[in-house]
UniProtKB/TrEMBL annotation:
The gene is queA. It is an enzyme of class 2 (transferase). GO terms for molecular function: S-adenosylmethionine:tRNA ribosyltransferase-isomerase activity. Belongs to the QueA family. It comes from Acetobacter tropicalis. The keyword S-adenosyl-L-methionine applies. The lineage of its organism: Bacteria, Pseudomonadati, Pseudomonadota, Alphaproteobacteria, Acetobacterales. It catalyses: 7-aminomethyl-7-carbaguanosine(34) in tRNA + S-adenosyl-L-methionine = epoxyqueuosine(34) in tRNA + adenine + L-methionine + 2 H(+). Transfers and isomerizes the ribose moiety from AdoMet to the 7-aminomethyl group of 7-deazaguanine (preQ1-tRNA) to give epoxyqueuosine (oQ-tRNA). This is S-adenosylmethionine:tRNA ribosyltransferase-isomerase.
C-alpha cells in the first residue's frame, strides 16, 4: 500500500486513447481479470457468458447535461463547467479565468436572455452561481448555449459533434445531472441487455451525477491529502432491498462502472448491507480500503495517477492492476471514455462482509451509519 501519487503512474502511448467508441458498442474489447492466473482477452459481447443466475448488475442511470458554458462579464470571457446543483437550486461550477469574477457579478450568455449571479468564489477556481432560469427553462437554456463537457483527451478542435451527443450517452440514462458520462455504461445495447437477462442475472439502477471534479488531476504528491469533489447520489428503498436480497441469496453484486461502485460503497454499512441514500458523497477509495458491497466491477481503463486508477488498484490489487494495464497496453486495448473495458474481481472485501454473506440464516437487519 502506498500514499505516493507517483506509484500510480504508468506509460500510455497517446495512440491508445480512443477518440470514438467501438461500433456496435458491445464490440469493444473486455479484459477479463480473475483474482489470479492468466488474463483473458474477450469482448463486451462475451459478458453474459461470465454471469450466472442470481447475479445483479447495478448501473448508473444519470444523464449527461450540456455542462460547458461560455459567459461574459462585461467584455471578459469566462469559461464555466457546471459541477452539481445544490439543495437551494444554485449551481457549484468550475471556472476558467476565475480571478476576473467578484461576488455580486452578473454574467451574460451570447444568444440568451438568461443571466447568472456570482454568489461565492472558492480557492482553486470553484464558484457558486444562481441562474435566472430554473426547471424546464434551464434545460432549454443549456440546450441553446451549452455544450458537452467532453474530457480533454477526446480531441474535438471545433467542439463536440452531433455524433458525440449520441455516443456520450448510455442506454441507462434517465435522470439529468451529470457533467461526464458513466463510461462503463456506454458499452451496453438492447441486444446485450437481452443476452444478460437470458442468463438469469438481474439488473437495477442507481443515480450518481458525475461532477466536473472527475476531470481534475491529483496534484498532491501524498494522495491522502487529495480532496475529492462531492457528487449527488440516490439509491431508492426498492433498489437497496434488491441489492441486499441478491447478496443474501448468494448472488454477486456487479457494479457497472466506478460511479456505481462508489455510491454502493457510500451507502453500505459495516456489515455490507446497502441502505437507501439521497445525499452527496465524496468517498475516496484507494489501496487499503475494505470493500463492503461489490463483488465484481466492469470499468473502462483509467488515466495514470488518477483517483480511478487508485480505486481499481484498491479493488483488484495494485500489482494485479499494474500487470493488467501493462497487458492492455501491450495488446493494443483502447483507453479512457470511448475505449475498451475490463472486468475485475474484488480482492479486498471486509471480513464482516464475508461473514454476513455466508450466514444467510441470520441477516443483520442493521440500519447502521453510511460511509
Amino acid at each position: 500500500m502506498s500514499d505516493r501519487t507517483e506509484d500510480f503512474d504508468f506509460h500510455l502511448p497517446e495512440t491508445l486513447i480512443a477518440q470514438e467508441p467501438a461500433r456496435p458498442r458491445e464490440n469493444a474489447r473486455l479484459l477479463d481479470v480473475p483474482q489470479d492466473g492468466p488474463f483473458h482477452d474477450r469482448h463486451v459481447s462475451d459478458l453474459p457468458s461470465l454471469l450466472r443466475a442470481g447475479d445483479l448488475l447495478v448501473a448508473n442511470d444519470t444523464a449527461v447535461i450540456r455542462a460547458q458554458l461560455h459567459a461574459l462579464r462585461g467584455e471578459a470571457r469566462i469559461g464555466i463547467t457546471l459541477d452539481r446543483i445544490l439543495a437551494d437550486g444554485t449551481w457549484h461550477v468550475l471556472v476558467r479565468n476565475a480571478r476576473r469574477l467578484r461576488v455580486g457579478d452578473t454574467l451574460t450568455f451570447t444568444g440568451s436572455p438568461h443571466t447568472a449571479e456570482v454568489l461565492a468564489r472558492e480557492e482553486g477556481g470553484g464558484a457558486v452561481l444562481r441562474f435566472s432560469a430554473e426547471g424546464s427553462a434551464f434545460d432549454a437554456f443549456l440546450k441553446d448555449v451549452g455544450a458537452l463537457a467532453l474530457p480533454p483527451y477526446i480531441h474535438r478542435p471545433h467542439g463536440p459533434t452531433a455524433q458525440d451527443d449520441k455516443d456520450y450517452a448510455t442506454i441507462f440514462a434517465e435522470h439529468k445531472g451529470a457533467v461526464a458520462a458513466p463510461t462503463a455504461g456506454l458499452h451496453f445495447t438492447p441486444s446485450l441487455l437481452e443476452a444478460v437477462d437470458a442468463t438469469g442475472a438481474e439488473r437495477c439502477t442507481l443515480t450518481l451525477h458525475v461532477g466536473a471534479g472527475t476531470f481534475l488531476p491529483v496534484r498532491e504528491n501524498d494522495i491522502s491529502k487529495h480532496h475529492m469533489h462531492a457528487e449527488r447520489g440516490i439509491i431508492t428503498q426498492e433498489t437497496a432491498e434488491r441489492i441486499n436480497a441478491a447478496r443474501q441469496a448468494g448472488g454477486r453484486i456487479i457494479a457497472v462502472g466506478t460511479t456505481s461502485l462508489r455510491l454502493l460503497e457510500s451507502a453500505a454499512d459495516e456489515t455490507g448491507r446497502v441502505h437507501p441514500f439521497d445525499a452527496e458523497t465524496s468517498i475516496f477509495i484507494r489501496p487499503g480500503y475494505k470493500f463492503r458491497a461489490v463483488d465484481m466491477l466492469m470499468t473502462n481503463f483509467h488515466l495514470p495517477r488518477s483517483t480511478l486508477f487508485m480505486l481499481v488498484s484498491a479493488f483488484a490489487g495494485t500489482e494485479r492492476m499494474r500487470a493488467a494495464y501493462a497487458h492492455a497496453v501491450n495488446s493494443g486495448y483502447r483507453f479512457y471514455s470511448y475505449g475498451d473495458a475490463c472486468l475485475l474481481r474484488c480482492a479486498n472485501p471486509i471480513d464482516t462482509y464475508r461473514i454476513s454473506h455466508q450466514t444467510t440464516a441470520h441477516p443483520t437487519g442493521a440500519t447502521g451509519a453510511l460511509s
